[in-house]
Amino acid sequence: FGSSCSLLQAIQIFRSHYALLDSHLHLAKTFSLMGGFWRSRLLPLKHALHAPHSRMLVTATSPKPMKRFYQITSTEQQGELWRVLLDNKAVKTPRGTFLELPTQALAQAVAKEWDAQGETLKPKEMPLTTVGCTAVDLIRPEKAECIQRLLPFLAMDTLCFEDDNELLAELQAQEWDPVRIWFESRFDVKLGIARGLGAPAHPDGTQGTVEAELNLRDEWELSALEIATSTAKSLVVATALLDRADIEAKDALRLALLEEHFQIERWGLVEGEHDVAHNEALMWLEA
Fold it and tell me: What would the pLDDT profile of 231-249 be if each residue is shown by its tens digit?
């Protein structure tokens, strides 16, 4: 692989699973990359009622952790893109492509993830590296497939359900309605609302209009959007997080987990479960 860092050293750090949002990992599709070190996995998007599609994420597994093998991290510009360097060697994706990022700020943030590692590398603390590799290796060559994984979330979007509990329904109307109305204005569509056990009945044309707009986005936006959508179980929340300056990761998390927060306020927090899951979800939304 010449003078570049092909990740034959770094690759082992991704051999521990990204836990993401789910309590377990279902292996749906596996194929070898770079001598069998890497695996591309389909991860379940939900551990609740509906999981319309799975999203692709570059992950890998390892029986043992890997020690840090580099001293210095830096970035360099290549044309209009930016690379991350480990001891002056450019990082590559699992498929052997240079990890070239669209902005200097993003490259510096990825480099910071590598620089923050201690003696043993911890891949779960490097979400931006995974987001970047996923965008380059999986979203870029299969953009249409990514969009088709996103659309079923709109059909069963979290923000398009109204609970039977009157108090919770009032809270949903207070916090969800403004975001849903914004989404309708943003895409010039209408969304249906489901009550009870039914599914939202979106008007004809809503999905096609949203799909056409998603096709205008590049692999970086779609990678971030898919991760945010699978985390929030809501394309509406994910789009608001990406497109609105006033919606931050913590706001998106509250919108996505409104019912859970409602129940926690009534019955209390389960330490070691709710807090861990919330922190992990927040990490991915911030990425």
Answer: 999 999 999 999 999 999 9
Q: Is the pTM of this model over 0.85?
A: no
* pLDDT one-digit tens code per residue, 131-150: 999 999 999 999 999 999 99
The amino acid occupying position 109 is A
Question: Burial, 113: exposed, middle or buried (Cβ in 10 Å; 0-12, 13-18, 19+)?
Answer: buried
**3-state per-residue secondary structure call for the chain:** CCCCECCCCHHHHHHCCCCCCCCCCCCCCCCEECCCCEEEEEECCCCCCCCCCCEEEEECCCCCCCECCCCCEEEEEECCEEEEEECCEEEECCCCCECEECCHHHHHHHHHHHHCCCCECCHHHCHHHHHHHHHHHHHHHHHHHHHHHHHHHHHCCHHHEECCCHHHHHHHHHHHHHHHHHHHHHHCCCCCCEECCCCCCCCCCHHHHHHHHHCCCCHHHHHHHHHHHHHHCCHHHHHHHHHCCCCCHHHHHHHHCHHHHHHHHHHCCCCCCHHHHHHHHHHHHHC
